[in-house]
Each structure stands twice: as C-alpha cells, then as structure tokens.
From TrEMBL:
Keyword Disulfide bond: no
InterPro entries: SDH, SDH_sf
Keyword terms of this UniProt record: Chaperone
Species of origin: Bosea eneae
Family, as annotated: Belongs to the SdhE FAD assembly factor family.
Domain of life: Bacteria
Keyword presence, Mitochondrion: no
Annotated protein name in UniProt: FAD assembly factor SdhE
C-alpha cells in the first residue's frame, strides 16, 4: 500500500510515474512528505515544476529530509519554488505520520 489518497486515473503517464515515485522513495518519512505533496499538487504543477519535482525526487532521502526539516541548509541549486512549496506543505507542529 502506497499511502496515496489520490487516484491517478485522470493523470497523464508522466504525472502517474511521478506520483508513484513520490510515494516509493525508500524512507517512509520521505514517502509521506513527497507523496502527500504530490497527492495535493500533481494535477496542477506546470511542466517546469514537474521537472523540478523530478529533480527533487532524485535527491537522497537523508539530504532532502534534512533540508525540509531545516536541519541542513538547502543548496542554492535546489532552493527552487517547488522546494519552497514542498517545505511549506510539510508542517512541523505535529508528527509526520499523523
């Protein structure tokens, strides 16, 4: 089970693949962060935003998690609008698995 609450039936093949990859990263915490963001935004991201989201999917889980949680500074080449949306989407005021 992926955890996704969004159907991919209305998505084009590229968005379906990205949605799947967002929910199957390897580290459960990153599945939840990336997957929930993808569930909410995959249908409305522009092609350029999809490019950037795919780039973020390629980042190692431990690195991306430390950027999202603020434990490490985001490298300038990854500090994009999509990353800032992802970070804003993730809330630290409650456990990630809730």
């Amino acid at each position: 089970m992926s955890g996704s609450t969004r159907s991919s039936a209305d998505l084009d093949p590229r968005r379906r693949k990205i949605l799947f990859r967002a929910w199957h990263r390897g580290m459960r915490e990153m599945d939840l962060i990336m997957g929930r963001f993808a569930d909410a935004h995959i249908g409305t991201l522009s092609e350029a935003d999809l490019d950037e989201f795919e780039r973020l999917i390629e980042v190692l889980d431990r690195d991306l998690l430390s950027w999202v949680t603020g434990e490490a500074q985001v490298p300038e080449n990854y500090d994009s609008d999509v990353f800032r949306q992802l970070k804003a989407f993730h809330q630290h005021d409650k456990p990630i698995h809730v």
